[in-house]
Amino acid sequence: MIAPADLIAFVYREARLLDEQRFEEWLALFAPDGRYWMPLEYGQTDRRLTASLMDEDLFLLRLRVERLKGNRTYSQKPKSRCHHVLQQPQVDVFDPAANRYVVWTAMHYVESRLDHQDLYAVWATHELTTIDGAIRIQMKRVDLVNCDAAFGSIQLFP
Amino acid sequence: MTSRYRDNPQALSALVRDAEVHRDVYIDPEIFTLEMERLFANTWVYVGHDSQVPNTGDYFGTTIGAQPVLMVRHEDSTVHVLYNRCPHKGTRITTETCGNTGRFFRCPYHAWSFRTDGSPAALPLPSGYENTPFADSQAAQGMTPVRHVHNYRGFVFARLSVDGPDFATFFGESLSSIDNMVDRSPAGRLEVAGGVLRYMHNCNWKMLVENQTDTCHPMVAHMSSAGTAIELWKRAGSQNPKPMAVEIYAPFMSPYEFFENMGIRTWDNGHGHTGVHHSIHSNYSAVPGYFEQMVAAYGEPRAKAILDENRHNTIYFPNLMVKGPIQLLRLFKPLGPDRTLVESWTFRLVDAPDFLLERTLVYNRLINAPTSVVGHDDLEMYERAQEGLHADGNPWVNLHRLYQPGETALAVDNGTTERQMRNQFRAWARYMAAEI
Ligand code: FES
Ligand SMILES: [Fe+2]
Predict the structure, then answer these.
(1) Which of A8, B40, B72, B338 has the fewest CB atoms within 10 Å distance of its CB?
(2) How many CB pairs under 8 A join A and B?
(3) What confidence tier does B172 reach under pLDDT thresholds 50, 70, 90?
(4) Which residues are within 5 Å of ligand 2 (an ion), measured at CB?
(5) DSSP assignment letter at A7
(6) What is the 3-state secondary structure (H, E, C) of chain B?
(7) Nearest C-alpha to atom 4 of ligand 1 is from which residue?
(8) Is the shortest distance between the CB of B384 and ligand 1 below 6 Å?
(9) CATH architecture of A4-144
(10) Is ligand 1 within 6 A of the CB of residue B147?
(11) Closest chain A residue to the Cα of B341, Cα to Cα
């Protein structure tokens, strides 16, 4: 049985895997049809006919992860690093009958490379489910507070 | 600061050789200032699309070079372009990037108001200006309009300078690429749709413009992204149907021969395009129902001719690129010698299936977003070049690929030539050195 505390621990652990660049373990947290979505608009509801910054299925997430390792990935020579600071995640939906859980987390995300460092304020919404008893990500929605600003490259994962 | 170029046309001309350009065109602050004055003021620069301002009073704020301007729909339904400042004390007039102002702009500072063609409407407490020479001041004229505005099939361009080439002369045959993009709508109309991606680049704007017709970089610089996409798809057993992401990424890894054979066409005044015969957009899967709509609208021969044209990137000199086959436009906005804002806009083909817009949005996200791996590949190269050009050992950038002495503007050539880059710089040098 899943308890709310497990969901909260899951979200903390997900951030840690990203900070430590343990990307294979991170990908394994997603359901097979899981997605990572970063809207372009504030309060965006549509993913199909409205542009997004990221809208990744597992194929595209794996592509990013493989690319980060690539010998000819010049934008990652040297590599970027990232850092998440999370507020206590809040469980918004806890519905074992439907196997559906939603956790909302405010966070600060830092991405750095060479002499450059960017800070993003983020609200993350994890739609979670369980598969064979393990918590899995159905959808990680990442709302940048300044989603409609002009950005330089964001190469890792808030 | 001492001026090396402003009053020295010889020094300016010497920056552009037949097939080499001096690094100062990318890194020198005075050159950037002169570009704003001489290039961006005297050419026809893209402002926006009229579908962004469909109703009377709709406005959109943007820039032409370094100049803040706004585009607005006037009462008579024409689109006007005004300098975006209040004639009183300079306050920006538009309250949001886009919105509706009704029949009047009202300055938020002291409430002077103006019609949407810029002419003065009213100001509070007018008695304060009696017995002053106010009526003779520029302020009394209202908001200053940009006089030369041309709406070409929805695409609004403006020229800041009083004198200069007219619209048709400046663009000539190059307008055929916009024609093809618009003709792909069964209704012959486009609408801006989906939202704009804005990507900040720490490099000179011309590097981006040149890169649009640089056909020798995709298989190298994008090996990391497009190459990995192909690799992953193969590893997964090349299952069909191909994921849309693979369909979009894979052509970037085409061999040199593919790009040689696609061809490049150059026109006068720095315009030109890749993909004369085919392009990376040629083999996208068919969209059910679309061809039938096109045949119904145009008849079969014309519908086929429109859809068989698969131009890759068309440069509208100085700073616009359009992709007709996927209804995408990129505007390279110069902010400084080493700073450029890239805006990537997408369009809906009116009366065509939604799926076409959906695919265009996927393309834009996968290739042009600040979160795009292909975008990361390219920006890394530009920023390295911006840094490397400061090396004193060699001040020249080389553009000799397939150069032929005495080459002219109008031509169709091997797709891997750097001819279009040379074409841009010939136009650049003409505008920069001329006493216009
Ligand atoms: S600055 Fe606009 S009314 Fe005074
Ligand atoms: Fe590229």
Answers:
(1) A8
(2) 101
(3) very high
(4) B 378
(5) H
(6) CCCCCCCCHHHHHCCECCCEEECHHHHCHHHHHHHHHHHCCCCCEEEEEHHHCCCCCEEEEEEECCEEEEEEECCCCCEEEEECCCCCCCCCCCCCCEEECCCEEECCCCCCEEECCCCEEECCCHHHHCCCHHHHCHHHHCCCECCEEEEECCEEEEECCCCCCCHHHHHHHHHHHHHHHHHCCCCCCEEECCCCEEEEECCCHHHHHHHCCCCCCHHHHCHHHHHHHHHHHHHCCCCCCCCHHHHHHHHHHCCHHHHHHHCEEECHHHCEEECCCCCCCCCCCCCCCHHHHHHHHHCHHHHHHHHHCCCCCEEECCCEEEEHHHCEEEEEEEEECCEEEEEEEEEEECCCCHHHHHHHHHHHHHHHCCCCHHHHHHHHHHHHHHHHCCCCCCCEEECCCCCCCCCCCCEEECCCCCHHHHHHHHHHHHHHHCCC
(7) B110
(8) no
(9) Roll (3.10)
(10) no
(11) A150
CA distance to partner chain A, nearest, from residue B192 (Å)? 11
Residue in the structure block whose two tokens are 């530009």: B382
Do the interacting molecules here have an ipTM over 0.85?
yes
> Residue ranges per domain, chain A?
4-144
- Mean pLDDT along residues B84-93: 98
Q: Closest residue of A to B232, CA-based?
A: A63
Taking CA atoms, B266 is separated from B172, B271, B294, in Å, by 11, 6, 29
Question: Is a pLDDT exceeding 70 seen at residue B1?
Answer: no
Q: What is the mean pLDDT of residues B268-285?
A: 95
